[in-house]
Amino acid sequence: xxxxxxxxxxxxxxxxxxxxxxxxxDSVREEIVLPIIKGLGYSANKPNQIIRSRNLxxxxxxxxxxxxxxxxxxxxxxxxxxxxxxxxDAKSPTESIIKSKNVEQAYSYAIHPEIRARFFSLCNGKExxxxxxxxxxxxxxxxxxxIPLYWENLKAILSxxxxxxxxxLEYKKDLGLHLKRLGFDKNTxxxxxxxxxxxxxxxxxxxxxxxxxxxxxxxxxxxxxFDFHLDVLKQLKGKIPDDGFEMLLTRKKEGRVAVRFPDxxxxxxxxxxxxxxxxxxDKEIFLPLKLTRIIN
Length: 296
Fold this sequence. Notes:
- The protein is α+β, with helices and mostly antiparallel strands and 296 residues long.
- It has helices at 25-40, 101-110, 147-158, 175-181, 230-233, 242-248, and strands at residues 3-5, 48-52, 60-63, 66-69, 76-80, 83-90, 119-123, 127-132, 140-143, 173-174, 190-197, 199-202, 207-217, 220-229, 258-260, 264-273, 279-280, 285-286, 289-294.
- Strands 1, 10, 11, 12, 13, 14, 15, 16 and 19 form a 9-stranded mixed beta sheet that branches. Strands 2-5-6-7-8-9 form a 6-stranded mixed beta sheet, with helices on both faces.
- Strand 6 (83-90), helix 2 (101-110) and strand 7 form a beta-alpha-beta unit.
Protein backbone atom coordinates (compact mmCIF):
# COMPACT_ATOMS: atom_id res chain seq x y z
CA UNK A 1 0.00 0.00 0.00
CA UNK A 2 1.77 3.14 -1.26
CA UNK A 3 1.15 6.03 1.11
CA UNK A 4 2.70 9.15 2.56
CA UNK A 5 2.23 10.30 6.13
CA UNK A 6 0.63 13.73 6.47
CA UNK A 7 2.07 16.13 9.02
CA UNK A 8 -0.21 16.32 12.06
CA UNK A 9 0.07 19.14 14.59
CA UNK A 10 -1.93 16.99 17.07
CA UNK A 11 -0.17 13.72 16.33
CA UNK A 12 0.33 12.72 19.96
CA UNK A 13 -3.10 13.64 21.29
CA UNK A 14 -5.28 10.75 22.50
CA UNK A 15 -8.79 11.49 21.14
CA UNK A 16 -10.34 9.07 23.62
CA UNK A 17 -9.86 11.80 26.22
CA UNK A 18 -12.68 13.79 24.62
CA UNK A 19 -15.17 11.24 25.98
CA UNK A 20 -13.94 11.74 29.55
CA UNK A 21 -16.34 14.06 31.46
CA UNK A 22 -13.31 15.55 33.23
CA UNK A 23 -11.92 16.77 29.90
CA UNK A 24 -13.48 20.24 29.85
CA UNK A 25 -12.85 23.65 28.33
CA ASP A 26 -9.53 24.24 30.08
CA SER A 27 -8.26 20.90 28.75
CA VAL A 28 -9.38 21.82 25.22
CA ARG A 29 -7.38 25.05 25.49
CA GLU A 30 -4.19 23.40 26.70
CA GLU A 31 -4.18 20.11 24.80
CA ILE A 32 -5.72 21.06 21.44
CA VAL A 33 -5.99 24.82 20.91
CA LEU A 34 -2.51 25.77 22.12
CA PRO A 35 -0.61 23.45 19.71
CA ILE A 36 -2.75 24.74 16.83
CA ILE A 37 -2.15 28.44 17.46
CA LYS A 38 1.56 27.91 18.09
CA GLY A 39 1.77 25.86 14.91
CA LEU A 40 0.16 28.76 13.04
CA GLY A 41 2.99 31.02 14.23
CA TYR A 42 1.66 32.91 17.26
CA SER A 43 3.22 33.30 20.69
CA ALA A 44 3.07 35.49 23.79
CA ASN A 45 5.59 37.85 22.21
CA LYS A 46 5.20 40.50 19.53
CA PRO A 47 4.85 40.89 16.60
CA ASN A 48 2.55 37.84 16.27
CA GLN A 49 1.02 37.94 19.70
CA ILE A 50 -1.54 35.85 21.58
CA ILE A 51 -3.62 38.00 23.94
CA ARG A 52 -5.72 36.06 26.40
CA SER A 53 -9.16 37.19 27.65
CA ARG A 54 -8.92 40.88 26.82
CA ASN A 55 -11.66 42.95 28.44
CA LEU A 56 -13.33 45.69 26.43
CA UNK A 57 -13.48 49.25 27.74
CA UNK A 58 -16.98 49.63 26.28
CA UNK A 59 -18.55 46.14 26.26
CA UNK A 60 -21.26 47.03 23.75
CA UNK A 61 -21.78 46.82 20.01
CA UNK A 62 -23.91 49.71 18.75
CA UNK A 63 -26.41 49.02 15.95
CA UNK A 64 -28.01 52.35 15.11
CA UNK A 65 -29.39 53.67 18.39
CA UNK A 66 -29.44 50.18 19.93
CA UNK A 67 -26.66 48.72 22.04
CA UNK A 68 -26.02 45.00 22.37
CA UNK A 69 -24.00 43.91 25.37
CA UNK A 70 -21.04 41.62 24.78
CA UNK A 71 -21.35 38.65 27.11
CA UNK A 72 -18.22 36.85 25.95
CA UNK A 73 -14.54 37.54 26.33
CA UNK A 74 -12.94 34.99 23.95
CA UNK A 75 -9.98 33.05 25.18
CA UNK A 76 -7.62 34.29 22.49
CA UNK A 77 -7.21 37.46 20.48
CA UNK A 78 -4.40 37.42 17.90
CA UNK A 79 -2.55 40.57 16.92
CA UNK A 80 -0.02 41.01 14.13
CA UNK A 81 2.09 44.13 14.57
CA UNK A 82 -0.37 45.36 17.23
CA UNK A 83 -3.36 45.03 14.90
CA UNK A 84 -6.18 42.58 15.82
CA UNK A 85 -6.55 39.90 13.16
CA UNK A 86 -8.73 37.06 14.50
CA UNK A 87 -10.15 35.59 17.66
CA UNK A 88 -10.64 32.05 18.95
CA ASP A 89 -12.93 30.85 21.70
CA ALA A 90 -12.52 27.41 23.24
CA LYS A 91 -15.51 25.42 24.43
CA SER A 92 -15.98 22.11 26.17
CA PRO A 93 -16.58 19.02 23.99
CA THR A 94 -20.28 19.04 24.95
CA GLU A 95 -20.94 22.57 23.62
CA SER A 96 -22.12 23.44 20.12
CA ILE A 97 -19.98 25.69 17.94
CA ILE A 98 -22.32 25.78 14.93
CA LYS A 99 -25.54 27.84 14.75
CA SER A 100 -25.57 28.55 18.47
CA LYS A 101 -25.34 31.46 20.90
CA ASN A 102 -21.62 30.76 21.10
CA VAL A 103 -21.24 31.77 17.44
CA GLU A 104 -23.35 34.91 17.87
CA GLN A 105 -21.34 36.02 20.88
CA ALA A 106 -17.97 35.42 19.24
CA TYR A 107 -19.16 37.39 16.20
CA SER A 108 -20.30 40.34 18.33
CA TYR A 109 -16.87 40.48 19.97
CA ALA A 110 -15.04 40.27 16.62
CA ILE A 111 -16.94 43.25 15.16
CA HIS A 112 -16.56 45.41 18.27
CA PRO A 113 -15.02 48.84 17.39
CA GLU A 114 -12.06 48.14 19.68
CA ILE A 115 -11.33 44.84 17.91
CA ARG A 116 -12.63 44.76 14.30
CA ALA A 117 -11.12 41.34 13.64
CA ARG A 118 -11.62 39.86 10.19
CA PHE A 119 -12.06 36.26 11.36
CA PHE A 120 -13.44 34.48 14.39
CA SER A 121 -13.24 30.82 15.29
CA LEU A 122 -14.43 28.30 17.85
CA CYS A 123 -13.10 24.93 18.94
CA ASN A 124 -14.70 22.42 21.30
CA GLY A 125 -11.99 19.78 21.02
CA LYS A 126 -14.04 17.65 18.64
CA GLU A 127 -14.59 20.28 15.93
CA UNK A 128 -13.01 23.48 14.65
CA UNK A 129 -14.99 26.16 12.84
CA UNK A 130 -13.71 29.35 11.20
CA UNK A 131 -15.88 32.27 10.14
CA UNK A 132 -15.32 35.54 8.33
CA UNK A 133 -17.29 38.46 9.72
CA UNK A 134 -18.46 39.05 6.12
CA UNK A 135 -20.09 35.63 5.63
CA UNK A 136 -22.91 33.81 7.38
CA UNK A 137 -21.70 30.30 6.55
CA UNK A 138 -18.38 29.00 7.92
CA UNK A 139 -15.25 29.31 5.82
CA UNK A 140 -14.02 26.04 7.28
CA UNK A 141 -15.61 23.41 9.51
CA UNK A 142 -13.94 20.11 10.25
CA UNK A 143 -13.52 17.36 12.81
CA UNK A 144 -10.34 17.92 14.80
CA UNK A 145 -9.12 14.42 13.94
CA UNK A 146 -9.08 15.53 10.29
CA ILE A 147 -6.91 18.59 10.95
CA PRO A 148 -3.98 17.24 8.84
CA LEU A 149 -6.25 17.50 5.78
CA TYR A 150 -7.14 21.12 6.55
CA TRP A 151 -3.88 22.36 8.01
CA GLU A 152 -2.43 23.97 4.89
CA ASN A 153 -5.71 25.75 4.17
CA LEU A 154 -5.89 26.93 7.77
CA LYS A 155 -2.37 28.34 7.55
CA ALA A 156 -3.18 29.99 4.21
CA ILE A 157 -5.83 32.05 6.00
CA LEU A 158 -4.71 32.47 9.62
CA SER A 159 -0.91 32.49 9.67
CA UNK A 160 0.54 35.92 10.50
CA UNK A 161 1.89 36.45 6.98
CA UNK A 162 -1.50 35.69 5.39
CA UNK A 163 -4.18 36.84 7.80
CA UNK A 164 -4.40 40.37 6.35
CA UNK A 165 -3.89 39.30 2.75
CA UNK A 166 -6.68 40.31 0.39
CA UNK A 167 -6.36 37.05 -1.55
CA UNK A 168 -6.27 34.65 1.44
CA LEU A 169 -9.85 33.58 0.67
CA GLU A 170 -9.46 33.18 -3.06
CA TYR A 171 -10.17 29.72 -4.43
CA LYS A 172 -7.62 27.81 -6.43
CA LYS A 173 -8.33 27.24 -10.12
CA ASP A 174 -10.21 24.11 -11.09
CA LEU A 175 -8.05 21.67 -13.05
CA GLY A 176 -10.91 20.27 -15.14
CA LEU A 177 -11.99 23.73 -16.32
CA HIS A 178 -8.38 24.67 -17.01
CA LEU A 179 -7.80 21.62 -19.23
CA LYS A 180 -11.11 22.14 -21.04
CA ARG A 181 -10.18 25.74 -21.83
CA LEU A 182 -6.84 24.56 -23.18
CA GLY A 183 -8.71 22.53 -25.80
CA PHE A 184 -8.57 19.03 -24.32
CA ASP A 185 -11.71 17.07 -25.27
CA LYS A 186 -13.47 13.95 -23.99
CA ASN A 187 -11.39 11.66 -26.20
CA THR A 188 -8.10 12.76 -24.62
CA UNK A 189 -6.59 10.23 -22.23
CA UNK A 190 -4.80 11.87 -19.31
CA UNK A 191 -2.49 10.09 -16.88
CA UNK A 192 -1.72 11.61 -13.48
CA UNK A 193 0.97 9.87 -11.41
CA UNK A 194 0.88 9.76 -7.62
CA UNK A 195 -2.47 11.39 -6.93
CA UNK A 196 -2.85 11.72 -3.12
CA UNK A 197 -6.11 10.09 -2.01
CA UNK A 198 -7.16 11.52 1.36
CA UNK A 199 -10.94 11.32 0.92
CA UNK A 200 -13.58 9.45 -1.09
CA UNK A 201 -17.30 10.32 -1.06
CA UNK A 202 -20.30 8.45 -2.40
CA UNK A 203 -22.38 10.22 -5.04
CA UNK A 204 -25.66 9.11 -6.59
CA UNK A 205 -26.11 6.13 -8.94
CA UNK A 206 -23.04 4.18 -7.78
CA UNK A 207 -20.73 7.10 -8.43
CA UNK A 208 -17.87 8.20 -6.21
CA UNK A 209 -15.60 11.23 -6.07
CA UNK A 210 -12.10 12.14 -4.90
CA UNK A 211 -11.12 15.75 -4.24
CA UNK A 212 -7.48 16.77 -4.46
CA UNK A 213 -6.70 20.19 -3.04
CA UNK A 214 -3.16 20.63 -4.33
CA UNK A 215 -2.74 19.31 -7.88
CA UNK A 216 0.25 21.05 -9.46
CA UNK A 217 0.62 21.60 -13.21
CA UNK A 218 3.30 23.82 -14.74
CA UNK A 219 4.07 25.34 -11.32
CA UNK A 220 0.42 26.34 -10.76
CA UNK A 221 -1.68 24.72 -8.04
CA UNK A 222 -5.21 23.62 -8.86
CA UNK A 223 -8.13 21.91 -7.17
CA UNK A 224 -9.06 18.68 -8.95
CA UNK A 225 -12.18 16.53 -8.70
CA PHE A 226 -12.14 12.93 -9.95
CA ASP A 227 -15.51 11.16 -10.41
CA PHE A 228 -15.68 7.42 -11.05
CA HIS A 229 -17.96 4.39 -11.12
CA LEU A 230 -18.08 1.33 -8.88
CA ASP A 231 -15.82 -0.71 -11.18
CA VAL A 232 -13.02 1.81 -10.63
CA LEU A 233 -13.63 1.90 -6.89
CA LYS A 234 -13.05 -1.85 -6.83
CA GLN A 235 -9.61 -1.23 -8.34
CA LEU A 236 -8.71 0.67 -5.16
CA LYS A 237 -8.99 -2.47 -3.04
CA GLY A 238 -5.64 -3.04 -1.38
CA LYS A 239 -4.56 0.52 -2.18
CA ILE A 240 -6.64 2.14 0.58
CA PRO A 241 -7.45 0.74 4.05
CA ASP A 242 -9.89 -2.19 3.98
CA ASP A 243 -12.33 -0.66 6.49
CA GLY A 244 -12.70 2.49 4.37
CA PHE A 245 -13.14 0.41 1.22
CA GLU A 246 -15.93 -1.66 2.82
CA MET A 247 -17.71 1.46 4.07
CA LEU A 248 -17.87 2.84 0.54
CA LEU A 249 -19.53 -0.33 -0.72
CA THR A 250 -22.44 0.22 1.69
CA ARG A 251 -25.30 2.59 0.86
CA LYS A 252 -27.11 4.10 3.84
CA LYS A 253 -30.61 5.55 3.67
CA GLU A 254 -29.71 8.42 5.97
CA GLY A 255 -27.06 9.82 3.64
CA ARG A 256 -23.95 9.34 1.57
CA VAL A 257 -20.86 7.83 3.10
CA ALA A 258 -17.70 9.92 3.11
CA VAL A 259 -14.39 8.30 4.03
CA ARG A 260 -11.43 10.44 5.07
CA PHE A 261 -7.90 9.36 5.89
CA PRO A 262 -6.81 12.09 8.31
CA ASP A 263 -3.15 11.19 8.84
CA UNK A 264 -2.08 9.62 5.55
CA UNK A 265 -2.42 10.14 1.78
CA UNK A 266 -2.63 6.98 -0.34
CA UNK A 267 -0.77 7.54 -3.59
CA UNK A 268 -2.18 6.11 -6.84
CA UNK A 269 -1.52 6.56 -10.55
CA UNK A 270 -4.73 7.25 -12.46
CA UNK A 271 -6.02 7.41 -16.01
CA UNK A 272 -8.86 9.80 -16.73
CA UNK A 273 -10.75 11.81 -19.34
CA UNK A 274 -12.11 15.34 -19.45
CA UNK A 275 -15.58 15.43 -17.92
CA UNK A 276 -18.55 16.80 -19.84
CA UNK A 277 -20.86 18.08 -17.12
CA UNK A 278 -20.20 21.27 -15.19
CA UNK A 279 -21.01 21.07 -11.48
CA UNK A 280 -21.83 23.97 -9.19
CA UNK A 281 -22.04 24.68 -5.49
CA ASP A 282 -22.63 27.91 -3.58
CA LYS A 283 -19.00 28.96 -4.01
CA GLU A 284 -17.78 27.84 -7.42
CA ILE A 285 -18.32 26.14 -10.76
CA PHE A 286 -16.08 23.17 -11.54
CA LEU A 287 -15.63 20.38 -14.08
CA PRO A 288 -14.91 16.93 -12.61
CA LEU A 289 -12.46 14.71 -14.43
CA LYS A 290 -13.76 11.23 -15.29
CA LEU A 291 -11.48 8.65 -13.68
CA THR A 292 -11.44 5.55 -15.89
CA ARG A 293 -8.70 3.38 -14.42
CA ILE A 294 -6.38 2.97 -11.46
CA ILE A 295 -3.02 2.19 -13.06
CA ASN A 296 -1.00 1.39 -9.98
